[in-house]
Every structure is written in C-alpha cells, then in structure tokens.
Amino acid sequence: MSDTLQKFMFEHSLVRGELVELSEAWTQAQQRRSYPPAVSAVLGEMMAAAALLSANLKFNGTIIMQIHGDGPVKLLVAECDAALQLRATAKLADDAAIADDAGLQQLVNLQGHGRFAITLDPADKLPGQQPYQGIVALDGDSVATVIENYMMRSEQLDTRLWLAADAGVARGLLLQKLPSEGGKAAVGEDADAWNRTVTLASTLGREELLATGIMTLLERLYWEEKVRVFEPRHPLFRCSCSREKVGNMLRLLGRDEVDDALAELGKLEIDCDFCGQHYGFDKVDCMQLFSTEIVADAVQPPGRQQH
C-alpha cells in the first residue's frame, strides 16, 4: 500500500485534521544511512510532521524543517514540497554515543543552545525574494511539542500533533482549530468539538500509533463523530539534488577556494546528504564551471551606439 495523507473535517465545527502514514518514503530516506534508533525516531517524526504541515499550506514551494543541535546530533532536516515530495537527513557528531532511549533534549539540546527553524521557500520566487524563515529556541521535550509551541507563537493557531516513528514506519495525527469569523461561533457550530477531539486523540499512545493504520485510527478515535473525509493524497520520497545545483554551490564557494581544494585533493567528491547520490568534479569540470562567467560590460544591447 502506498504512503497516504488523509485530510478530514469534523462536521459543524471549526476543527480540521490530518493523518499521515509513511513507510516507503521513510524507508527510502534511510536507505543509505544507518541511524541510531533514537535518531531514527526523531527524524521520522519530523518527516511525518513536514508532510502534515505542508498539506495545510496554500503555498507552491517547499517547507524545510530544521533542528540545530548542540548535543550528539548536530542537525536534523525534513523537507516537503507542495506535491508532498519528501526527503530527510541527520548529521551526527563524529564521536556521538547515543542511547536507544535518548530523548530530544539529550540528542540536540545538552547546553541549551538547540534551535528549531521552519523555512518556506517559494518555487516561483521573484528576483531578490528571500525565503521566509522563523527560528525559535528548542521549546519542548518532543518534536510534536516543539512544533505546537512554534505554531501558537508564529501563527496564533491552536495546533496539536501526535507523532511516532521507528525504522519501518512514521505516522502522525494533526488537529487544528480554525479561527471563527469575527471571533463569534456560527449558529449550529459545535463549540465543544476542539476540546472533545483533542481529548480523544490524547488517548493515543506511541505503540498504538506505530502499530495501527491511519484509517483504522480515524475510525477507532472518532467513531461517534460526524467526520467528512477528503480524497487521500500520496506522499513519496524524492530528492531534488542535481549536478547543476552542486555546480552552483561550488561557484558560490569561489574560484580560489575550489582551486585550493583541487590542488590538495586532485578531484572534488561530493555526496548528497539526503539520497547519497555521488557527484565528482575534476579540474576540467571546475574550469568549465567558472569559464561560463561573462563580464556584463563586454556585451552590448542591440542597437546601442558607442560614443
């Protein structure tokens, strides 16, 4: 069965929800890396959360979720675009010794300098337009709590998340309370829906979330509720790396730095952190990268006369 993201809405209320199940995409994200169980659990939760948040955005671009750490884990990244194409990676300290039951704070916030960031990178940026990025202190003992606190501060939206992942599957549930128009409840609106649906979801434990398919979970949690279910979507793993993008990165480093690296190494060997794709650049390749630079003053617009 393909990976699935299922949106739903509680009738006569301003509460919406999503469930996501990632097995194929999550397996592919781990294919070329062997993470300790504690790291795998956190990264899988971030990947599920990235899919849940991306599906709620009316935004043609990529959501990039990052945790910068000061513990044995230095960086965790999960990305998801508008088509629910996902990728994720983690960077560990060279001497990292990580217990199987290590929590988020032990992994990334030993000295209290951990940071959580969400970046929205438009696919169709205007010239000079920069991606939007919000960065906050790592406030919470779990990925779900960190994101909930971020959403409340940055978006002023009541958002609750339940996330779980192991080496084989990552699942997540999101509930969100939408603002009422004019701050007043509409006629016939179920005013208690938010408290009730959150209370029911809070009975969901990690082991149950890992062991149960998302449609079974929806029926089990909300069998007494009137739920409107929408057409499911199917996330997938896809890496956006390319030789062109690696070449652009080398150009940004500058010719002097690239030449110094070539003199020392003979050839530049670069592997994508997300998918493991290998890119090699020898002296001829690098010469071609920088030979494409054109001095603008050497080109005259058509019809321009020199004086």
Explain what the structure shows.
The protein is an alpha+beta fold and 307 residues long. It has a six-stranded mixed beta sheet, with helices on one face. Strands 8-9-2-1-10 form a five-stranded antiparallel beta sheet, sandwiched between helices. The protein contains ten helices and 13 strands. The radius of gyration is 23 Å and the shape is globular. The chain folds into two domains: 4-237, Hsp33 domain; 243-298, CBS domain Like.
Write the layout of secondary structure elements.
Elements: E1 4-10, E2 15-22, H1 24-30, H2 37-56, E3 61-68, E4 73-81, E5 85-92, H3 104-108, E6 115-122, E7 132-137, H4 143-155, E8 158-165, E9 170-177, H5 193-201, H6 206-211, H7 214-221, E10 227-229, E11 236-237, H8 243-253, H9 255-265, E12 268-271, E13 278-281, H10 283-291
Parallel strand pairs: 5-11
Antiparallel strand pairs: 1-2, 1-10, 2-9, 3-4, 3-6, 4-5, 6-7, 8-9, 12-13
